[in-house]
Amino acid sequence: MPTPEDIKGWIEQNLPGSQVEISGDGRHFEAVVVYAGFEGKSRVQQQQMVYGALGDKMDEEIHALSMRTVTPQ
């Protein structure tokens, strides 16, 4: 079962320069992801980038993830 620190690391590793805060109980997680690469992208595209950063872990290890994505500005 992943920890909030695991998820934070996976996102930050795959979205270099991002700042990530994760909270959760081991099955359900909430994320706030601040990333300059979100600039000019729709909310859906931003969330797809986070899901892409997590890859198969979303299907296999993370039961539920709600997120807020923002740019540094």
From TrEMBL:
<comment type="similarity">
    <text>Belongs to the BolA/IbaG family.</text>
</comment>
<dbReference type="InterPro" id="IPR002634">
    <property type="entry name" value="BolA"/>
</dbReference>
<protein>
    <recommendedName>
        <fullName>BolA family transcriptional regulator</fullName>
    </recommendedName>
</protein>
<dbReference type="InterPro" id="IPR050961">
    <property type="entry name" value="BolA/IbaG_stress_morph_reg"/>
</dbReference>
<dbReference type="InterPro" id="IPR036065">
    <property type="entry name" value="BolA-like_sf"/>
</dbReference>
<dbReference type="Pfam" id="PF01722">
    <property type="entry name" value="BolA"/>
</dbReference>
